[in-house]
C-alpha cells in the first residue's frame, strides 16, 4: 500500500528576481507584474495554486516588489470609483485578485538563489509538505499539473518534481533528471534517481528537464541549510533535491510527474510574446477578432500565402 502523507496546504512563490532580461521594462516594475494579455503573470500562478486547493500563499520577495503586495490588496479608491460609475464588470476584475487567496510576504534578503528563497519560507510553512511555483512558468488551466503532483505526494510521501521533455541541445539550460520506473505507477509517474543542474552539453542524464513546479517534503529545509553554493554561486534547489534522490532516508523519495501539456515560458522575451499571442487567441472575448487580425497580419508580412 502507498505511504499516506499529510497533504500540502500552502504554496510558496519565489518572486525576488530582478528580471534583467526584460530591462528597461523591469527597471521600476517587477517582472512578475508584466501583463499576459490583461492579467499580470503572477496572478496566473496564484490562480493555479488556488485551483489546486492551496489558498495559503507565501511570496518570497525582494526590494522594489511593492507592486505585488498592492495588486493582491484591496484598492478601495478604485473600487469606489467603479461603483459610482456602475461598472460592475471592471469592479469584479479588480476585486478578484484581492479575494483569490490568503497571501503573505517575506523578504529573501540576499539574492542567493532559488534554494535560499525556498529556505526563507520555512517559518511560514513549518513541518508540512508544501508546493513551490515559479512565476516564469505558466501552466494552462486545462492541464492540472499541480493537482496531479499533490496527489502523488500525498500517496507516496517525499517530494515531487515536474519534468518535461526538451530537445537534447537545450538540456544545458535546465536541471535534468535520471529516472526509473515506479512499480505500479501511472504512465506519467517516474522515480528520480539523480539530478544535475544545467549539465554541460552532451552530459545530461536524460532529456527530462525540471520545470517550475515542486511539491516538497519539509526535510528539504534542513538539507538546504547545509547545501553549499553551487552553479552560479547560488544555493540550488536542484542540489538539495539531488541529495534526497540519492538518499531517500533523508526525507523520503523524489518522484516526478512527466508533463505533456501546455506550458508558457514568460521568462524569455520571445516566449513571453508567444505566450501572450497564444492566450489571447484562446480567449472567448478577444480570440475571434484577434485571430482574424493575426491572420491578416501574417499574410501582409508574407509569412503565409495570400
From TrEMBL:
It catalyses: alpha-D-glucose 1-phosphate + UTP + H(+) = UDP-alpha-D-glucose + diphosphate. InterPro entries: GalU_uridylyltTrfase_bac/arc, NTP_transferase_dom, Nucleotide-diphossugar_trans. CDD domains: UGPase_prokaryotic. One of its GO terms (molecular function) is UTP:glucose-1-phosphate uridylyltransferase activity. Signal peptide: none annotated. It comes from the Bacteria. It is an enzyme of class 2 (transferase). Pfam families: NTP_transferase. One of its GO terms (biological process) is UDP-alpha-D-glucose metabolic process. Keywords: Nucleotidyltransferase, Transferase. Its EC number is 2.7.7.9. Residues 10-276 form the Nucleotidyl transferase domain. Belongs to the UDPGP type 2 family. This is UTP--glucose-1-phosphate uridylyltransferase. It comes from Streptomyces tabacisoli.
